Amino acid sequence: xxxxxxxxxxxxxxxxxxxxxxxxxxxxxxxxxxxxxxxxxxxxxxxxxxxxxxxxxxxxxxxxxxxxxxxxxxxxxxxxxxxxxxxxxxxxxxxxxxxxxxxxxxx
Length: 107
Fold this sequence. Notes:
This protein is 45% helix and 25% strand. By secondary structure, it is an alpha+beta fold. A four-stranded mixed sheet has the order 2-1-5-6. Strands 3-4 form a two-stranded antiparallel sheet. A hairpin with a 2-residue loop joins β3 and β4 (44-46). The longest helix is centred in the middle third of the chain and has 17 residues, at 51-67. The two termini are 13 Å apart. The mean pLDDT is 95.
């Protein structure tokens, strides 16, 4: 499965192997536990992030992974997003860097 990622007008494709969607469930659950304690999203503290906000948090980590060329982390964050938002096909990051404005398109 492929997640299309757009950062500052540049296109990146992150390929997620099908097996990762199931094999990483334990890590995804741990991420959810961590995020359920609340998360700083830009200048705003979110006490209990929604599924969309959790995916925006993962997307922020995905962007960092792409920028630092950490393919393993990029793949893992893309898998998390695709698992939590079935049908996710594309992520468009806000040019100003506002996590809450990151758009995740689902088909």
